[in-house]
C-alpha cells in the first residue's frame, strides 16, 4: 500500500487538523524543529490526539523537501503494525528498484531487500538468496547500505508519523541503520501520540538523540485565527470554543464547523468516546461521576461511593483523559473539557440518575447540591426551585456570577406556573447575574423572554423596567444602539421613584456617551441620587453619586469632592463599591489629579484583586486599563504593556466593547513598545468607539492616535487627530485639563506645524484652568509646551530658562516620562544654540530616564538626537543656529517629511524604501519634490534644513 493511499484510508481513524491548523500559531515550534534538523539532530514531536502533531510533521517534511533534502515518509496505522516491514515499504516507496543506490547493493542484500519490499527481482528466474541461505544480516545491511548511499547526494530525512505504531521489523531495521550510519546525514523527524491511543514504545529507535518537542495546546489568540472565520469573528464564540476544546485545534475546528447545531458533532463525539473506551468499568463510572459534578474533586467522588477515585483518576490521567489531579485534591479537569459533556451524554438516564442521587447526598456545598437536585427534578417543584434560588445567591456572594446565572435560570424553570411573580423575579435576577458575568448574549436573551411574556400577558411594569435595564447594561459602550429603550422604560416606570432613579442613572451615561454632554449627564445623575434616596434604594443612590462626582471632576466643579465623599459614606453596597464606575475607582482618578500616583496604584491594585473575585468582566477590563495608564505615568512601561494586553484579553473573552482596551494598548505600546503597533491599536480604539457611537471614549482614542503620530513625527496627522479630540472634549464641557491630558501634545503638534499663536492660546487657556484647580503636574507639563512656543518664536535664551524651570518642576513630581521629554527638548534646544556640552548633558539625562523606564520609542529619539550632536557635519556643527528664514518643513507632506528626515540622516534610497515599506521609485520621487519645496540641491543641504528644525516631523530613531 502506498503512502498516499494509506494516509487517505486512515483520515477518519486519526483526527488531524488540516490547512491553516498545520502551522497557525506554531511558528516558534517549527523554527525549533527546523533548527534541530539543520544542526544534524533528529526531531521528535509529541502530544495528544488532535493537537496537530501530524500536520506539523507534514509541514516540516514539505519544508525539508523544498530545501532539496530527500524525504522518506511513512505513517503507520495501529491496526497494521503487526504486518512485517510495512513501514519500510512506505518509506522506500519513493526509491525505485532501478535507482543507483539499489544497483550498488551486493546481490544477496539487494535480493533480501526486494523480497522484504515485495518487489520482483530484475531477473525473474534468479533465486532469492535470503530464501535459500537465510542470512539474518542480509536485510539489515541492505537497509543500512541503501540509506547511507542515498546520503551521498545530501541529507536524508526519515519522517515517521505515529512512530510508536511502526511494525517491529521496520523499527529494528531503522535502529540498526541509525546506529551504524557513521556520521552520514541520516536524520529523523518523528511524531508520537501521548495519552489515550499511545503505542507500545516501538519508537525508542528514533528518540534517543532527537530533540523532543511537545506540541502545546493553542491559546485563545492562536485559536481565534484558526476558528474565527468559521464563527464570524465573534469573540464570545471563540472564547466558548476555546474553553470547550481546551485549546485542542482538532476539537476546536469540529466545534466551530458545527456552530449553531445542537449537541456535539457525531464524528467528534465518536473520537472522544473512542479515547475513553480503554477505561475499565470502575474508572469509567468514576469518570462519569466527575462529569456529572459541578466541581468534581476526589474527596467528593469518594463520598459519593467511588472508593477508588484516586486510582481511577490516575488511570484516566495516564490515558490523557483528565489532567493529573494534584496531591491536595484539587478539581478534576477533563482533557479536553468537552469530554465531560460527551461522557455524561453517553450514559443512559437511569445511570445518570443514580450518579446524581449519590452526588447530591455527598455534596456539602449548597451550589453542588442544587446542581444535582435540578438534574433529578426536571419538572416544576417549588422546593427545588427555592433551593436552586438560594444556591444562586450563594454563588453570587462567592463571586461566581456565571454559576449564579445558570442556577437562577434553572430555579425559574422549576418554579410552578401558579407563582409567576417568583418565576419572573428569578429569571430577571439570572439576567442581572449574566450581566455581572459578562455573558451579555444570555442576559439579553432572558430579558427579551421576560419582555415578550410581559407584553403579551399581564406582566408588571416594574419587571419590564428591570428587563429594559438589563438590555441597557448589556450593551457596554454601544449605548447608542439602545436609545429607543428609554422612552418605553420611562413609560413603564411611571411615578415609581425607585425605577425612575435607576433609569436616570442610565440616562446619565447615555447623555455623556451618546449625546456628548457632561452637563446633562450631571443633571440626570443628581436626579437619580435624589430619587433613589427618597425610595430607600441605597445601591442606586451610591451609583448615581459616583457618576455625579465623576462628571463634576470632569467639569472642574468644586462640588466634586463633596459628592465623592457622599458616595464613599456608609452604609455601602459592595456591588457599587467595587465596580469600575464606583467610588473606589473614582478615588484613584482623584489621586491622579493631585499627582499621587502611588496612592492611585494602591487603590487600583486592591480593587483589581476584589474584582477578580467577585466583580464583572467589564470592571476587570476597565481596572486593568486604568492601572496600565498609572504605570505609564510612573515610568513602568513593561508592566503597563502587560496590563494593557490583559485588559484587551478580558474584553475579547467577554465580548465587551474593545475601544477602551485598545486605547490602553495604544498608550502602553507608545510608551514602551513599538510605535507601529501603537498606531494600529489607536486606530482600532478609534474605530471601535466610532462604531459604538461612544462619545466618551472617542476623544481618548483620538488623543492616543495624535500622541503616537506626534511621537512618529507625523505632524499633520497628529494635529488633525488632536484637534478632533479637542473639539469633542470642549464640546462635552471638560473643565479640568488633568482629567484628559491631551493639551500639551496638541500644543507641541501645533508648534511643529507652524501654528505658534494657536499653540500659545491653547497653553494660556489650559494654564488658567489648571491654576484655578491647583493641578501642579499639569502646570509643569504646560510649562514645557510654553517653552516650545517661545523657542518657535525665535527667543532661544528665554526658552532655555523656561525649559530648565519646567524640567526642575517635573523632576519634583512622579512623572519620569514627562521629565524625560522635557530634557529631550532641552537637549535639542541647547544644540541649536551651539552648546554641545549642555546638549549632551540634557540628552544623556533623558536617555537614562527612558532606559530605566524601558520607554524604547523615546529612548530611540534621545539616542538619535545625541548622534546628531556628535556628528561633525551634522546640523548642530560649529554651534550654527537655525536660520529663521530657512524653509519650513510644513511645506512637505507627511511622507515627504519622513523620507527627507531619513535621507538627511544618511539612509540610502533602498534603506528608506525598506524602512517605510514603499518602492525605491516612490522614495526618489518624494525626494525630488522635497528638494524643490525646500529649495535645496543636495543631501547635505537637506540635512541642514531638516535636522536643524525641532519643529520638524521626525521619525523615531
UniProtKB/TrEMBL annotation:
This is AAA ATPase domain-containing protein. Residues 1-20 are annotated as: Disordered. Residues 885-950 form the HTH luxR-type domain. GO terms for biological process: regulation of DNA-templated transcription. It comes from the Bacteria. One of its GO terms (molecular function) is adenylate cyclase activity. GO terms for cellular component: cytoplasm. SMART domains: AAA, HTH_LUXR. Keywords: ATP-binding, Nucleotide-binding.
